[in-house]
Amino acid sequence: MAAGFDKDCKVLGSVLNLGFGFTTGGTVTLSARPGNPKPRMIRLPEQKAVMNSMGFPGQGLEPAIKRLKKSQKYKNRVLISIAGTIEDEIFECLRQSQSLVSGIELNISSPNTAGLRIFHEPGRLRGLIEGLVAEKQVPLFVKLPPWPRNDENRRELLKLAATAVDAGVDGLVVANTHPIENTRLKVGRGGLSGAPLFEHTELMIADIQAQVQGQASIIACGGVSTAEQVWKLLATGASAVQLYTAFIYGGPGLPARINKRLSKLMNAAGISSIADITGEPPRV
Predict the structure, then answer these.
(1) Residue 232 to residues 211, 238, 277: CA-CA distances in angstroms?
(2) Choice among 97, 110, 217, 225 that is catalytic
(3) Cβ(190)–Cβ(51) under 8 Å?
(4) Residues 6+ apart with CB under 8 A from 234
(5) Bridge-partner residues for 58, per DSSP?
(6) Can you point out the beta strands (E) in 148-216?
(7) How confident is the prediction for the chain on average, in pLDDT?
(8) Residue 212, Ramachandran bin (φ over 0: left; ψ between -120 and 50: alpha; else beta)
(9) pLDDT at 275 over 80
(10) What is the pTM of this model?
(11) Which DSSP category does 100 fall into?
């Protein structure tokens, strides 16, 4: 489960019991935040998509830490997404949470949160990551902004990925929601998630895999709803796959259905490990 579903780490165990291999709590910020004004989440059923301008609403780090302490039996399957608009806030989130989780996801890419773009400057990002790497005790992942194939920002965003890896992150989450402008959202802009994103996700994973050449793990995120899509992303270079919007439309049985179907595909291909997934998924 991708970040954003369980913002305050309230249902970590329940999510995992549905069939997810791991879940990401948050995004958590140091202090409580109200988020952006409503309406800030709009379904687009005909596209199996969602527009959101949430803006990190949440109770803050302290309540999340209390819940993580009560969920330690799931520790090795829980990541926490953290963010802030100044370095000190992010450092404090890492220090207090890292002993309670199996990994940290640094969110520098939400299109709905003012102030995060300061970390899109490579020098600022490098300084932040090097500082976090010096203190981290668990794997550190950076969640990147998306880059559609013909986007003029593609080169700059790939440079961000290279900077993050060079500065010592263990992995990259590719990628966040796609920026969108829409007057139905109170603030007039937000992020698009769901089925329309998948083709971009596949292209971005290929871009990142070509760039990092195995130096960092890749978690794919964006538009995933089927086992065949999971297969394609793993074959392209992802180590793991997240979903969220598909869960809204597919319901609580979706992760178990994907697992069952993926197992069937692997049996048809004669393999027993997701590390052996290559090429196109077999026809079953």
Answers:
(1) 18, 9, 9
(2) 110
(3) yes
(4) 220, 241, 274, 277
(5) 33
(6) 171-174, 178-181, 189-194
(7) 95
(8) alpha
(9) yes
(10) 0.96
(11) G
The domain segmentation of the chain, as residue ranges, is 12-258
pLDDT digits (tens, 9 = 90+) for 244-260: 999 999 999 999 999 99
The side-by-side arrangement of strands in the sheet containing 103-107 is 23-28, 78-82, 103-107, 140-144, 171-174, 217-221, 240-242
Of 141, 7, 5, 14, nearest to 71 by C-alpha is 14
Nearest one of 176, 101, 167 to 139, comparing CA atoms: 101
Q: What's the pLDDT tens digit per position in 3-12?
A: 999 999 999 9
pLDDT of residue 111: 82
Asked whether 3 and 27 are in contact (CB, 8 A), the reply is: yes
3-class secondary-structure state, position 157 = helix
Specify whether domain 12-258 bears CATH 3.40.50.720: no
Single out the residue of 67, 70, 175, 82 nearest to residue 135, CA to CA: 82
User: Is the pLDDT confidence value at 151 over 90?
Assistant: no
Structural element, H or E, at residue 259: helix 254-269
**Which H or E run includes 28?**
strand 23-28
Q: Is residue 263 among the annotated active site residues?
A: no
| Amino acid, res. 233 | L
What band does 27 get if pLDDT is binned at 50, 70 and 90? very high
- At 185-241, the pLDDT tens digits run 999 999 999 999 999 999 999 999 999 988 999 999 999 999 999 999 999 999 999
- Residue 144 clears pLDDT 70, i.e. is over it: yes
